[in-house]
Specification:
Blueprint (H helix, E strand, L loop, with lengths): L1 H6 L25 H11 L4 E6 L1 H12 L4 E7 L7 H16 L6 H8 L5 H12 L2 H13 L5 H5 L5 E6 L7 H10 L3 E6 L6 H4 L1 H15 L2
Parallel strand pairs: 1-2, 2-3, 3-4
Helix pairs in contact: 2-3, 4-7
């Protein structure tokens, strides 16, 4: 992960596997976003800056709201907030298709993320998607599809610096979503990266790492 590689040169970094992914024990089905958050909260041994991407952004924000003693700053990368009816229906349909299928073919997902470009990032994501346990991926995706972003009241009571960052070409976790959340969070700011889409942390690591470094400095004041 480009963020850990860069930031760990000056800071102590930890990267958590989503429950049911990597070597992490799975949650019972069906799961909720709070169960994912609480599992990660149990593994944090000191307050710090928390960053998450996509579903990880939901978890990072939930962690900052419900476990504020653990979070000195939060970064939500490509986070969803108030999906349109059309987008909500599309993500629910994808969750249903995953549940109905056997082992899923990741090509449709990769095309959404990378179009038809064959890049090292696309190949890495394909390896991850084909290596994950299918039932655990479905469990997580159903949670992702059911969520609609943090409540306004929760955003309004975020006491730490909050970065909302997404790509200008992101059709699902849109720039408008990040900007709306940043307006509500007391110490929020939005950063939109030109030319970037959903896999922003991989495809545009340099600006992401730079903004995370700024957030770490803000949280350390």
């Amino acid at each position: 992960m480009a963020q850990v590689s860069e930031l760990s040169t000056t800071r102590h970094c930890r990267a958590f596997d989503l429950p049911g992914h990597g070597a992490s024990r799975a949650l019972p089905y069906p799961a909720t976003i709070t169960q994912y958050t609480d599992r990660i909260a149990d593994a944090i041994d000191a307050p710090g800056v928390v960053a998450g991407h996509s579903m990880g952004a939901m978890i990072a924000l939930d962690l900052a709201v419900r476990h504020p003693h653990l979070v000195k700053g939060v970064a939500a990368l490509n986070a969803i907030y108030r999906r349109s009816p059309k987008a909500a229906e599309a993500v629910r349909r994808r969750a249903t298709e995953l549940s109905a299928a056997g082992d899923s073919d990741p090509e449709a997902t990769l095309t959404r993320w990378f179009a038809d470009r064959d890049t090292p990032e696309r190949r890495a994501c394909r390896e991850w998607l084909t290596g994950v346990v299918t039932e655990h991926y479905k469990t997580a995706y159903e949670v992702f599809a059911a969520e609609n972003g943090p409540a306004d009241a929760d955003l309004a009571r975020l006491s730490c610096p909050a970065l909302f960052m997404t790509g200008a070409k992101e059709p699902n976790s849109t720039p408008e979503m990040s900007e709306a959340m940043a307006r509500i969070a007391p110490h929020g700011r939005a950063v939109i990266v030109e030319g970037a889409a959903h896999m922003l942390p991989m495809t545009h690591a340099v600006p992401v790492n730079a903004e995370l470094a700024v957030l770490v400095r803000e949280a350390s004041r």
